[in-house]
Amino acid sequence: MSKTNKPLDLSNALNRRTFLVSIATVAGGAALVACSANNSTNASNNNNNQNTSSSKKYALAVVGGMAGVPFYEMIKKGAEEEAKAQGMDLTYQAPKQWDPVEQTKIVEALIARKVNAIIISPCDNQALVAPLQKAHDAGITVITVDTVLGDGDYANGSVKFPITYIGSDNTKGGKIAGEVMIKAIGGKGKVYIQSNKPGTSSTDQREKGFKEAIAATNGAVTIVSTSYDEGSMDKATQQTSAVLQAHPDIAGIFGTTAFSSEGAAAAVKNANKSNAIKIIHFDSSQQGVTDLRNGIIDFIIGQKPREMGKIGVQYAIKALNGDSSLQKNVQTDFVVIDKTNVDTPESQNAIY
Protein backbone atom coordinates (compact mmCIF):
# COMPACT_ATOMS: atom_id res chain seq x y z
CA MET A 1 0.00 0.00 0.00
CA SER A 2 1.46 3.34 -0.98
CA LYS A 3 -0.02 6.65 0.09
CA THR A 4 1.58 9.99 0.80
CA ASN A 5 0.39 11.92 3.84
CA LYS A 6 -0.40 15.61 3.59
CA PRO A 7 1.91 17.85 5.68
CA LEU A 8 0.81 17.99 9.32
CA ASP A 9 -1.12 21.20 10.07
CA LEU A 10 -0.16 21.43 13.72
CA SER A 11 -2.11 24.62 14.42
CA ASN A 12 -5.35 23.13 13.20
CA ALA A 13 -4.58 19.87 14.98
CA LEU A 14 -3.99 21.54 18.31
CA ASN A 15 -6.98 23.80 17.90
CA ARG A 16 -9.14 20.71 17.45
CA ARG A 17 -7.16 19.20 20.35
CA THR A 18 -7.39 15.79 18.77
CA PHE A 19 -6.08 14.17 15.70
CA LEU A 20 -5.12 10.77 14.44
CA VAL A 21 -1.99 10.56 12.36
CA SER A 22 -2.14 8.09 9.53
CA ILE A 23 1.28 6.63 8.95
CA ALA A 24 0.76 4.26 6.08
CA THR A 25 4.25 4.61 4.58
CA VAL A 26 7.70 5.61 5.71
CA ALA A 27 10.09 7.10 3.22
CA GLY A 28 13.52 5.53 2.72
CA GLY A 29 15.80 5.97 5.69
CA ALA A 30 13.58 8.41 7.55
CA ALA A 31 12.75 5.70 10.06
CA LEU A 32 14.45 2.54 11.20
CA VAL A 33 11.22 0.67 10.61
CA ALA A 34 10.96 1.82 7.00
CA CYS A 35 10.20 -0.67 4.31
CA SER A 36 9.51 -0.40 0.62
CA ALA A 37 6.04 0.85 -0.29
CA ASN A 38 5.11 -2.61 -1.50
CA ASN A 39 5.86 -4.09 1.94
CA SER A 40 4.08 -1.59 4.20
CA THR A 41 0.43 -1.14 5.03
CA ASN A 42 -1.75 0.72 7.49
CA ALA A 43 -3.39 -1.38 10.17
CA SER A 44 -6.81 0.17 9.68
CA ASN A 45 -6.88 -1.07 6.09
CA ASN A 46 -5.08 -4.31 6.87
CA ASN A 47 -7.79 -5.37 9.33
CA ASN A 48 -10.65 -5.14 6.83
CA ASN A 49 -10.33 -8.83 6.02
CA GLN A 50 -8.74 -10.90 8.75
CA ASN A 51 -10.34 -14.32 8.37
CA THR A 52 -7.63 -16.33 10.10
CA SER A 53 -9.72 -19.26 11.26
CA SER A 54 -7.80 -22.54 11.18
CA SER A 55 -8.59 -26.19 11.72
CA LYS A 56 -5.18 -26.51 13.39
CA LYS A 57 -4.52 -25.42 16.95
CA TYR A 58 -1.22 -23.63 17.34
CA ALA A 59 0.87 -22.78 20.42
CA LEU A 60 1.56 -19.04 20.33
CA ALA A 61 3.84 -17.09 22.66
CA VAL A 62 3.94 -13.34 23.28
CA VAL A 63 7.10 -11.87 24.85
CA GLY A 64 6.91 -8.35 26.25
CA GLY A 65 9.74 -5.92 26.76
CA MET A 66 9.39 -5.76 30.55
CA ALA A 67 7.04 -7.23 33.15
CA GLY A 68 4.48 -4.96 34.78
CA VAL A 69 4.52 -2.32 32.04
CA PRO A 70 0.92 -1.40 31.11
CA PHE A 71 1.82 -1.00 27.42
CA TYR A 72 2.96 -4.61 27.14
CA GLU A 73 0.05 -5.79 29.26
CA MET A 74 -2.25 -4.25 26.67
CA ILE A 75 -0.39 -6.01 23.84
CA LYS A 76 -0.94 -9.19 25.86
CA LYS A 77 -4.64 -8.44 26.26
CA GLY A 78 -5.17 -7.87 22.54
CA ALA A 79 -3.25 -11.05 21.73
CA GLU A 80 -5.18 -13.11 24.29
CA GLU A 81 -8.52 -11.88 23.01
CA GLU A 82 -7.67 -12.77 19.43
CA ALA A 83 -6.14 -16.14 20.35
CA LYS A 84 -9.28 -17.06 22.28
CA ALA A 85 -11.46 -16.02 19.36
CA GLN A 86 -9.37 -18.19 17.05
CA GLY A 87 -9.24 -21.15 19.44
CA MET A 88 -5.45 -21.00 19.89
CA ASP A 89 -3.22 -21.58 22.91
CA LEU A 90 -1.28 -18.47 23.97
CA THR A 91 1.24 -17.80 26.72
CA TYR A 92 2.80 -14.50 27.80
CA GLN A 93 6.18 -13.82 29.40
CA ALA A 94 8.41 -10.78 29.93
CA PRO A 95 11.71 -10.15 31.74
CA LYS A 96 11.46 -8.52 35.16
CA GLN A 97 13.81 -5.76 33.99
CA TRP A 98 14.54 -4.24 30.60
CA ASP A 99 17.24 -6.81 29.94
CA PRO A 100 18.06 -8.50 26.60
CA VAL A 101 19.91 -11.27 28.44
CA GLU A 102 16.81 -12.22 30.41
CA GLN A 103 14.63 -11.88 27.34
CA THR A 104 17.00 -14.20 25.47
CA LYS A 105 16.50 -16.84 28.19
CA ILE A 106 12.74 -16.60 27.64
CA VAL A 107 13.20 -17.09 23.89
CA GLU A 108 15.47 -20.08 24.44
CA ALA A 109 12.89 -21.68 26.74
CA LEU A 110 10.19 -21.15 24.13
CA ILE A 111 12.38 -22.81 21.50
CA ALA A 112 12.79 -25.80 23.82
CA ARG A 113 9.01 -25.94 24.26
CA LYS A 114 8.63 -25.98 20.47
CA VAL A 115 6.00 -23.26 20.28
CA ASN A 116 4.71 -22.50 16.81
CA ALA A 117 5.13 -18.72 16.87
CA ILE A 118 6.83 -16.03 18.94
CA ILE A 119 5.36 -12.51 18.91
CA ILE A 120 7.97 -10.34 20.62
CA SER A 121 8.93 -6.79 21.52
CA PRO A 122 12.75 -7.11 21.42
CA CYS A 123 14.60 -5.33 24.23
CA ASP A 124 17.53 -4.74 21.88
CA ASN A 125 17.49 -4.63 18.09
CA GLN A 126 20.86 -6.40 17.84
CA ALA A 127 21.17 -8.63 20.90
CA LEU A 128 17.95 -10.50 20.13
CA VAL A 129 18.82 -11.21 16.49
CA ALA A 130 20.81 -14.40 17.16
CA PRO A 131 18.34 -16.06 19.58
CA LEU A 132 15.37 -15.24 17.36
CA GLN A 133 17.28 -16.46 14.31
CA LYS A 134 17.70 -19.72 16.23
CA ALA A 135 13.95 -19.80 16.79
CA HIS A 136 13.34 -19.22 13.09
CA ASP A 137 15.80 -21.97 12.17
CA ALA A 138 13.84 -24.29 14.46
CA GLY A 139 10.72 -23.65 12.38
CA ILE A 140 9.14 -21.07 14.70
CA THR A 141 7.35 -18.11 13.14
CA VAL A 142 8.81 -14.82 14.45
CA ILE A 143 6.88 -11.53 14.51
CA THR A 144 8.02 -8.32 16.20
CA VAL A 145 5.66 -5.74 17.70
CA ASP A 146 6.48 -2.19 18.84
CA THR A 147 10.25 -2.71 18.48
CA VAL A 148 12.26 -4.16 15.60
CA LEU A 149 15.28 -6.32 14.89
CA GLY A 150 18.18 -4.86 12.92
CA ASP A 151 17.08 -1.85 10.92
CA GLY A 152 13.48 -3.05 10.80
CA ASP A 153 13.46 -3.53 7.03
CA TYR A 154 12.52 -7.21 6.89
CA ALA A 155 12.24 -7.15 3.09
CA ASN A 156 15.62 -5.68 2.17
CA GLY A 157 17.55 -5.02 5.38
CA SER A 158 20.13 -6.92 7.37
CA VAL A 159 17.52 -9.05 9.18
CA LYS A 160 14.92 -10.70 6.97
CA PHE A 161 13.59 -13.73 8.85
CA PRO A 162 10.76 -12.08 10.87
CA ILE A 163 7.37 -12.36 9.16
CA THR A 164 6.50 -8.74 9.89
CA TYR A 165 6.83 -5.72 12.18
CA ILE A 166 3.57 -4.48 13.71
CA GLY A 167 3.51 -1.15 15.49
CA SER A 168 3.84 2.59 15.31
CA ASP A 169 6.12 4.64 13.09
CA ASN A 170 8.06 5.82 16.12
CA THR A 171 10.11 8.37 14.21
CA LYS A 172 6.88 10.02 13.12
CA GLY A 173 5.58 9.85 16.68
CA GLY A 174 8.70 11.55 17.99
CA LYS A 175 8.39 14.24 15.35
CA ILE A 176 4.79 14.86 16.35
CA ALA A 177 5.93 15.19 19.98
CA GLY A 178 8.56 17.72 18.90
CA GLU A 179 6.05 19.78 16.92
CA VAL A 180 3.61 19.74 19.83
CA MET A 181 6.42 20.80 22.18
CA ILE A 182 7.49 23.70 19.96
CA LYS A 183 3.93 25.00 19.88
CA ALA A 184 3.42 24.48 23.63
CA ILE A 185 6.51 26.49 24.67
CA GLY A 186 5.87 29.32 22.26
CA GLY A 187 8.46 28.44 19.66
CA LYS A 188 11.58 29.05 21.74
CA GLY A 189 13.37 27.76 24.81
CA LYS A 190 15.32 24.82 26.22
CA VAL A 191 14.02 21.26 26.31
CA TYR A 192 15.23 17.96 27.72
CA ILE A 193 14.73 14.32 26.67
CA GLN A 194 14.23 11.56 29.24
CA SER A 195 14.57 8.20 27.50
CA ASN A 196 14.92 4.48 28.04
CA LYS A 197 18.12 2.89 26.75
CA PRO A 198 20.20 3.25 23.56
CA GLY A 199 19.69 0.31 21.23
CA THR A 200 15.94 0.07 21.85
CA SER A 201 14.56 0.73 18.38
CA SER A 202 11.26 2.33 19.41
CA THR A 203 12.77 4.93 21.74
CA ASP A 204 15.79 5.50 19.47
CA GLN A 205 13.33 6.39 16.72
CA ARG A 206 11.25 8.65 18.97
CA GLU A 207 14.38 10.54 19.95
CA LYS A 208 15.33 10.84 16.30
CA GLY A 209 11.96 12.24 15.25
CA PHE A 210 11.86 14.67 18.19
CA LYS A 211 15.35 15.96 17.43
CA GLU A 212 14.43 16.43 13.76
CA ALA A 213 11.48 18.59 14.74
CA ILE A 214 13.58 20.65 17.16
CA ALA A 215 16.36 21.08 14.59
CA ALA A 216 13.84 22.62 12.21
CA THR A 217 13.54 25.63 14.58
CA ASN A 218 17.10 26.62 13.59
CA GLY A 219 18.21 27.15 17.17
CA ALA A 220 15.09 28.79 18.56
CA VAL A 221 14.50 25.63 20.58
CA THR A 222 17.49 23.69 21.89
CA ILE A 223 17.93 20.31 23.58
CA VAL A 224 20.09 20.62 26.71
CA SER A 225 20.68 16.87 27.13
CA THR A 226 19.28 13.35 26.92
CA SER A 227 19.34 10.89 29.83
CA TYR A 228 18.68 7.13 29.88
CA ASP A 229 16.86 5.51 32.79
CA GLU A 230 16.83 1.86 31.55
CA GLY A 231 13.15 1.49 32.39
CA SER A 232 13.48 2.70 36.00
CA MET A 233 11.03 5.40 37.04
CA ASP A 234 13.12 6.20 40.11
CA LYS A 235 16.20 6.69 37.97
CA ALA A 236 14.23 8.91 35.59
CA THR A 237 13.16 11.06 38.54
CA GLN A 238 16.75 11.35 39.78
CA GLN A 239 18.11 12.20 36.36
CA THR A 240 15.45 14.80 35.66
CA SER A 241 15.97 16.39 39.08
CA ALA A 242 19.69 16.76 38.32
CA VAL A 243 18.93 18.36 34.94
CA LEU A 244 16.45 20.79 36.51
CA GLN A 245 19.15 21.90 38.94
CA ALA A 246 21.69 22.34 36.15
CA HIS A 247 19.20 24.05 33.83
CA PRO A 248 16.54 25.84 35.93
CA ASP A 249 15.20 27.60 32.84
CA ILE A 250 14.08 24.42 31.00
CA ALA A 251 10.78 25.02 29.23
CA GLY A 252 9.83 21.48 28.27
CA ILE A 253 10.54 17.77 28.78
CA PHE A 254 9.87 14.89 26.40
CA GLY A 255 9.59 11.42 27.97
CA THR A 256 9.98 8.70 25.35
CA THR A 257 8.28 5.99 27.46
CA ALA A 258 5.62 5.86 30.17
CA PHE A 259 8.22 5.24 32.90
CA SER A 260 10.53 7.95 31.57
CA SER A 261 7.65 10.43 31.38
CA GLU A 262 6.21 9.60 34.79
CA GLY A 263 9.62 9.74 36.45
CA ALA A 264 10.30 13.12 34.85
CA ALA A 265 6.85 14.37 35.89
CA ALA A 266 7.56 13.38 39.50
CA ALA A 267 10.78 15.41 39.46
CA VAL A 268 9.01 18.45 38.03
CA LYS A 269 6.26 18.15 40.63
CA ASN A 270 8.83 17.83 43.43
CA ALA A 271 10.51 21.00 42.16
CA ASN A 272 7.15 22.86 42.15
CA LYS A 273 7.55 23.61 38.44
CA SER A 274 4.50 21.89 36.99
CA ASN A 275 3.06 25.18 35.78
CA ALA A 276 6.36 26.34 34.27
CA ILE A 277 7.52 23.22 32.38
CA LYS A 278 5.57 21.55 29.57
CA ILE A 279 5.78 17.74 29.65
CA ILE A 280 4.98 15.45 26.74
CA HIS A 281 4.34 11.86 27.79
CA PHE A 282 4.80 9.15 25.16
CA ASP A 283 2.41 6.23 25.71
CA SER A 284 -1.06 6.67 27.14
CA SER A 285 -0.86 4.83 30.45
CA GLN A 286 -3.46 5.24 33.19
CA GLN A 287 -0.91 7.06 35.35
CA GLY A 288 -0.16 9.38 32.46
CA VAL A 289 -3.86 10.18 32.13
CA THR A 290 -4.09 10.84 35.87
CA ASP A 291 -1.10 13.20 35.63
CA LEU A 292 -2.72 14.91 32.65
CA ARG A 293 -5.99 15.48 34.49
CA ASN A 294 -4.05 16.82 37.50
CA GLY A 295 -2.04 19.26 35.39
CA ILE A 296 1.31 17.54 36.00
CA ILE A 297 1.83 16.75 32.30
CA ASP A 298 0.42 18.54 29.29
CA PHE A 299 0.19 16.13 26.35
CA ILE A 300 0.16 12.39 25.74
CA ILE A 301 1.21 10.75 22.49
CA GLY A 302 -0.98 7.66 22.50
CA GLN A 303 -0.36 4.41 20.62
CA LYS A 304 -2.58 1.35 20.10
CA PRO A 305 -0.86 -1.63 21.77
CA ARG A 306 -4.03 -3.71 22.01
CA GLU A 307 -4.33 -3.56 18.23
CA MET A 308 -0.68 -4.59 17.89
CA GLY A 309 -1.30 -7.74 19.92
CA LYS A 310 -4.45 -8.58 18.00
CA ILE A 311 -2.82 -8.19 14.59
CA GLY A 312 0.25 -10.10 15.80
CA VAL A 313 -1.87 -13.17 16.50
CA GLN A 314 -3.75 -12.80 13.22
CA TYR A 315 -0.49 -12.64 11.25
CA ALA A 316 1.01 -15.57 13.17
CA ILE A 317 -1.94 -17.80 12.32
CA LYS A 318 -1.95 -16.70 8.69
CA ALA A 319 1.78 -17.41 8.38
CA LEU A 320 1.43 -20.82 10.03
CA ASN A 321 -1.38 -21.61 7.60
CA GLY A 322 1.01 -20.94 4.72
CA ASP A 323 0.02 -17.42 3.68
CA SER A 324 3.08 -15.97 1.92
CA SER A 325 1.44 -12.66 0.93
CA LEU A 326 1.69 -10.96 4.34
CA GLN A 327 2.96 -7.39 4.54
CA LYS A 328 6.40 -6.91 6.09
CA ASN A 329 5.41 -3.73 7.92
CA VAL A 330 2.01 -2.99 9.48
CA GLN A 331 1.73 0.45 11.05
CA THR A 332 -0.76 1.52 13.68
CA ASP A 333 -1.87 5.08 14.50
CA PHE A 334 -1.29 7.80 17.10
CA VAL A 335 -3.62 10.14 18.93
CA VAL A 336 -2.46 13.32 20.68
CA ILE A 337 -4.30 13.66 23.98
CA ASP A 338 -4.72 16.71 26.22
CA LYS A 339 -7.23 17.79 28.88
CA THR A 340 -9.83 18.87 26.34
CA ASN A 341 -10.06 15.57 24.44
CA VAL A 342 -9.08 12.94 27.00
CA ASP A 343 -12.65 11.66 27.28
CA THR A 344 -13.34 11.34 23.55
CA PRO A 345 -13.68 7.85 22.05
CA GLU A 346 -10.47 8.30 20.04
CA SER A 347 -8.47 9.04 23.17
CA GLN A 348 -10.15 6.45 25.39
CA ASN A 349 -9.41 3.71 22.86
CA ALA A 350 -5.70 4.53 23.12
CA ILE A 351 -5.49 4.50 26.93
CA TYR A 352 -4.23 1.42 28.74
UniProtKB/TrEMBL annotation:
PANTHER family on file: D-ALLOSE-BINDING PERIPLASMIC PROTEIN-RELATED (PTHR46847:SF1)
This protein's GO CC annotations: cell envelope
Protein name: Ribose transport system substrate-binding protein
Organism: Thermosporothrix hazakensis
Source taxon at top rank: Bacteria
All copies of domain Periplasmic binding protein, residue ranges: 64-323
PROSITE patterns attached to this UniProt entry: PROKAR_LIPOPROTEIN (PS51257), TAT (PS51318)
Keyword Signal among record annotations: yes
Keyword Nucleotide-binding (UniProt): no
